[in-house]
Amino acid sequence: MRRVSDLPDVIPVFPLPGALLLPRSRLPLHIFEPRYLAMLEDALKTSHRLIGMVQPREVPGGGEARLQAIGCAGRVTVFSEAEDGRYMITLTGVSRFRIRDEVQGFAPYRRCTVDWADFDRDLGPSESDVGFDRPAFLAVLGRYFQSVKMSTDWEGLRGAETELLVNSLSMLCPFAPGDKQALLEAPSLTTRRETLVMLMEFALTGGAGGDRLQ
User: Fold this and answer.
1) pTM of the full predicted structure?
2) Could you count the other beta carbons within 10 Å of the beta carbon of residue 191?
3) Organism's domain of life (predicted)?
């Protein structure tokens, strides 16, 4: 799947609040609900093995949650089955997509017609971030991790490729779903890194008038 033309027009989607997948990144998932077990089994029967991760949007007074317009599709690259029928899988991010319409049918899970055209860059090589200041970035990250009581392998972070570092932290940090969506929709790695730093600094200053985390 090196070109947009290689990607399917219809994919299954997995609405999971706060779960972020980015191109060339990996997202482990635990699948146990019957409808998503059916989704996985159907995806494994296809040649592309794609599942779209998308943030749901709660609508007051509405029924089923609506979906954000943009998500990211991942290919099932690792899966294992537990004795009770549950699956542990890993999705490797392929490309973001824009939802055109939701497909009506008899499947127990949701499927959408999607457009990949705006995200052909996702199918290319890793992005670079020319203005990346790693020491300054890690200093903010250290204060943020301390504030939310998270630990990490600092030696690994110091040597990690820039895209892997920024994308992995975007997926890992416990931001609100709306913030995760902003990270997903960032048009470049530089913009994503700037958004990530802004979110960490916002949390450290207590957000909108709250207590400081430092």
Assistant:
1) 0.90
2) 14
3) Bacteria
Asked whether residue 115 is assigned to any structural domain, the reply reads: yes
**Based on the domain organization, do 57 and 148 belong to the same domain?**
no
How many domains, the chain? 2
Together in a domain, 116 and 139? no
The reply to whether 128 falls in a domain is no
Name the residue among 196, 193, 157 with its Cα closest to residue 174.
196
Q: Please say whether the beta carbons of 50 and 79 come within 8 A.
A: no
The H or E element containing residue 13 is strand 10-15
Does one domain contain both 152 and 78?
no
Strands annotated E in 38-109: 50-54, 56-57, 66-67, 70-81, 87-103
Per-residue pLDDT of 5-40, as tens digits, reads 889 999 999 999 999 999 999 999 999 999 999 999
Q: Are residues 78 and 181 in the same domain?
A: no
